[in-house]
Amino acid sequence: MKIKSGDTLSQIAKNKGITLKSLLAANPSIKNANQIKVGQTIKIPESKKLSGSASDNPYKGMTRTQMNQMDIKNKSDRAQRSATRGMQTQVKAGAQTTPTKKNKNTGSSMNMSKFEEMKQKMIAKRKKK
Length: 129
Known about the structure:
5 helices
């Protein structure tokens, strides 16, 4: 697909029903997701081939940090490149695209599905008492 004036990767991802992460993983030549050029050709991945790539939310699986780094208001090209590279690496490594959430008790991040699983176990323990 050729980039037209006004196109953004997040807009393209949303229109194609894929995540921004999967779009970036399919286009390793993109060094900064906020700096694509008119006429540039990008590959659109098949949503069935990459786990977690089909979505009506293009930002699915991105951490808050990645979203902040990718924010156009963030003028740090280094941070934007780092976030772009990080997302490409995560998808290639087969990382789950489930966002992480801060654990209120420890302050550490954990996978949301694991968080929900632990939460359900805690609720079940309370009910037994």
